[in-house]
Each structure stands twice: as C-alpha cells, then as structure tokens.
Give the backbone structure.
Amino acid sequence: MSVRKLLMIVYRCCIVAFIALVVVASLTDLPLAWVWLPAALAIAIALGMSRKAHAEQAGRPPAVEVDAPVAGRWSALNSPADKVPSHGTHGYGQTYAIDIVAEPEGLPEAEGLPEAKDGSRPAFRWLWPVVRRSRDFPAFGAPLLAVADATVVRATDGQRDHLSRNSLPALVYLMLIEAAVREMGGATRVTGNRIVLDLGDGTYAMYAHLQRGSLAVREGDRVRAGQQLARCGNSGNSTEPHVHFQLMDGPDLDTARGIPFRWRGIGVPRNGEPFTAGEPVLPA
C-alpha cells in the first residue's frame, strides 16, 4: 500500500472519529481536546497532501488530446480553463477535471414554471422547487462515449440517481451534510457510478455520476473511440445530472494525479461556454 493511499484511509477515519466523538461529547463530559484531535489530524493531512500536489503540478504535464465524451450541445462548469485545481482540490485526481451539462437549443425556462416547457435545462432556484427529478434535466440519459480506443478497468452502476440539489435549501443540505457523509465513504460514494478507461501510456479517463443500470460495457472490455459506454446520471456527490470527466495517471482515485486534456476540435471550454461535439445523440 502506498503512503498516499494510507493517508487517505487515515483521513477518512479521522472524519468518522470526529463525528463519533462529537456525539459522545454531547452525552458525556468528554474533554473537547479529545473531540478536536482527529479533526486537527484530518486537516493536517489534507493540507500536507494539497501542498505536495501543488508542488508536483509545478512542472505541468502536456495536455493529452482525446475525443469529447458526449455528442450534441453542452456547456462547461468547473472548468480547468478557468481555475486549477478546477474543483478546488487535487483529491481523487480532479486537478484538471471538468463538469459539463446538456444545453439543448430552445427558449430559456419561463419564470415561475416548475419545469422548462421546451426541454431546456432547469434554472437554479432560491427556494422553490427545492428538488427536481433527474429526468427533468436534458443531460439525464445522454450517451457517454469512449474518448479513445481503450480498455475498461472500472465499471459500476449500482448507486441510485438522487433528486437534484439545484435550489438554495438543497445546496446547503448538500454542502453541510450530504457531501461530508459521502466523503467518509471515499471515492465510491463521491463519484457515484463511474467508468475508468485505460487509454495506454499511463493515462486513464474517468467518467463519474453515471445513470444507474446504464452500463453498456464491462470491466476488461476493449472499446473503440466513440463507442457508447453508459448514460449520464445523477449518482454520487452531484447537484444535477451532468458529466464529470477527467484524465489521471492511475485507476485508483485515492492515489491518482490529474493530467490536463484537450478535446479534439473543441479544446477546453471555459465556464459557461457552450460547445457542440459531433452529431447530437438523443437519450433513449
């Protein structure tokens, strides 16, 4: 077991210990120093690993060019074109990760209506509706495509697709409670259903938040560029149905380091920038 893997395990154990000690302290006279000890250790581990990751990225590797993982019209969120690390952390190989959401052509959502009338992406709401069904979002069910000829090394699709978290109350719940609980469960609970492809030459592609039961491939399968792998879902630590894509240097998310990418013919779209990849492929 690598030192990095061991530190990730200790980090999660510290978070669990902190929450357990908070509960114990509320029922007993346990000294507060004991309660905050595992929290302090978790923070120290996180800061130390972050500094090391920043140092490792000083000599930024060249971007690897691959095909886009989707077809049709999409836009970018949390893009490495705007900020690195794109998701605010180097953890789980996310340094150069990108989130994308489907943006079909059509009129913006009418103010006050619970759903878009024309299938466009529902807007963020301050209060109501608090949550939405996954199928209300145009990304849900969209085919995910192999970005290169590759071998499938990880493929899971057993976790459920939860309701959206794209209102202020739901987002607060996600940030304060759900995200912390998922972090304790490690990469599996954070990424939800996922596929990892071995592209060769020490490069791996990861797709997260897949739709439950949508896998079209199995671990060990050899796939061709453009082949359908699964469908976009809303599993794991996700606010709405979207595609989380990243390249990394290994299949284990606890130890992987991010690798920059470029999508052939597109580049790296910036936050909010729409782009069109290939011919539109409609969800079944």
